[in-house]
Design goal:
- This protein is of the alpha+beta class and about 160 residues long.
- It folds into two domains: about 50 residues, Arc Repressor Mutant, subunit A, CATH 1.10.10.10; about 80 residues, Lrp/AsnC effector binding domain/regulation of amino acid metabolism (RAM) domain (Alpha-Beta Plaits, 2-Layer Sandwich).
- The chain has six helices and four strands, in the order αααβαββαβα.
- The chain has a four-stranded antiparallel sheet with strand order 2-3-1-4, covered by helices on one side.
- α1 packs across α2 and α2 crosses α3.
- It is elongated and about 55 Å long.
Amino acid sequence: MALIYLDPTDLRILTEIQRDGRITKLALAEKVGLSPTPCWTRLKRLEQRGIIVGYSARLALWQVAPWVLVLVELTLRNHRQSDFDRFEKVVREVPEIMTCWAVGGGVDYVLKTIAKDVNAYQILIDSLLARDIGIDRYFTYIVTKVVKDDAEIPLATLLS
C-alpha cells in the first residue's frame, strides 16, 4: 500500500483532533490557521482517505467500576495459517480483549485485556482454553500501575 502524503496543515489538523475529537470546526480552523471551509474540506478528505478511522472518548473507568488490566503473552500449538485465522476470529469476538497484536519473537500474540477483577480474568482465559482455539501457553501480567497511556500518535516525530 502506498503511503499518503500529508502536508504540514494536514498534520496540524490530525494533531488537534487527536487532542480533542469534539473540537468545533471554527476552533479547529483557528488552531491550524485556516478559514473554516478549507479546514472542513481537508478534514473530510482525511476521513474519506481512511486516515481518520473514528472518533472516541477516553473514559475515567476507575470512577465508575472496579477493573483490572491484564497483558497476556500467548503462543499457539501449531503455526499453520488456519490456526492463526481461527484464533484471530475468536479474539475479535471477545469484548474483554481490547487489543491483540501478532508479534515476532518468542510468542505469537500479546493481548491487552480488561476484567472486573482477577477472577473474572481467569474465567476469560478458561473460556478461551475451553474453545480449543490452539492455545499452547500463555503468560499473564497484571498491570499494577499505569505510568503512561497516551493515545495521541506523535505524528511530527514519526514523519520527520
